[in-house]
Input
Amino acid sequence: MDDETGVYPDGSVFAYVDTLEAGWHTLTDEERARAGVLLARASRIIRADCPGWSRAEAENPGLCSDICCEMVKRAMLPGTGDIPAGITQMNRTTGPFTDGYSFANPTGGLYLYDTEKRRLGNGVQTAFSIPMAGAA
Output
């Protein structure tokens, strides 16, 4: 990322696989390939859904990268390892050994939380004035 403009040199993604990996866990080769695709998609979603992203990034360098990584992490959690992650509900019956899980993001979709959208400038109120009288 260019420190002065807050934009990545190729202008395509806000975060790279190494950035995601450094803030989460060591990724397998398969996870790295999937993460690369998801990071590009998340970057496009941020640009499409949050038109004020460039101003937010200028005020808080690295913000888009952080949010992009969080989006991808949420999308990859349900399919990571043998231990279920991202569970919102769990049922366990000891008798006939039944387990049941409900995932927060079962389809692995990319989405922005409302708080992330606000950080990127969506829904933030601004004040302005328009002079109604002509120049004196």
